[in-house]
Amino acid sequence: MKKLFFLMVACLVATTASAQFVNSGGGNSRSTASSGNFFGQMSTDDYNRFYVGYNPTKIKWDESEYEDSFPMSSSLSVGYLHASSLSSQLPLFLEYGANFQYSFGKETDSYEDDYYGDEYETELSMNMYSLNIPVNLALKLQFNDCALTPYLGLNFRVNVAGSYKISVEGEEESMNIFSKSDMEDWWETDEVTAKRFQAGLNFGVGFNYKNLYLGVGHISDFSKIFNYSDADFVGKIGVTTLTVGFNF
């Protein structure tokens, strides 16, 4: 962590020095117009990235009573991204790609039988497999071997499979959250069935050192994964993205 901290400080110093150098018109290999342009020293070449991520994940419910009932708290992802240059004068890129995400979580609780007075331990778990397609606008501010890449765009998620398990005193029941029959058997209505598609706002920033990439961002869904308003069973997914990647 100390090495990363000093590396970021060094990049910040290099960024400041480079900006002053460009604004002052320095440099012997640029035209006068380019030397006066802050972005004139930066690369507009396309780039690619392979990456893996750990993503704190949460279903944000309209009603708090469901907070602990669907404990999806984390996810792991692996993906590929391509960035196409949008301008020969500005380091502005259109980023797009795909990543596969496995989301999971578990919650242990206990409850007391009101009639017999016995206490039972209950374990709730949830997992989901999804394909994400991000489409972003990114600005790659590069100085020497370092770069900062803020981005803003959309994320489209297609949920391939998911399950929900309830275990009470060793007896387990599992259901497919995308199956109307499974969800109706438990909730007595198929209106609680999870939705397979969500779209959301995708934003964050990446730090590059040579080919190494470190990123942090957030995905906030517009569309809901559960949407049964009659029972206040309404929730959207929020995902924090922490990624490590390799640019080429």
Give the secondary structure arrangement, pairings included.
Blueprint: H1 2-23, H2 32-35, E1 47-61, E2 74-85, E3 92-112, E4 119-139, E5 141-143, E6 146-168, E7 171-176, H3 180-187, E8 197-209, E9 212-221, E10 226-228, E11 233-247
Antiparallel strand pairs: 1-2, 1-11, 2-3, 3-4, 4-6, 5-6, 6-7, 6-8, 8-9, 9-11, 10-11
Walkthrough of the structure:
This protein is mainly β and 248 residues long. It folds into 2 domains: 1-41; 46-247, Porin, CATH 2.40.160.20. Helices cover 14% and strands 57% of the residues. It is built from 3 helices and 11 strands. The protein has helices spanning 2-23, 32-35, 180-187; strands at residues 47-61, 74-85, 92-112, 119-139, 141-143, 146-168, 171-176, 197-209, 212-221, 226-228, 233-247. It has an 8-stranded antiparallel β-barrel. A hairpin with a 2-residue loop joins β6 (146-168) and β7 (171-176). It is elongated, with a radius of gyration of 24 Å. The two termini are 24 Å apart. Residues 1-36 have low confidence and may be disordered.
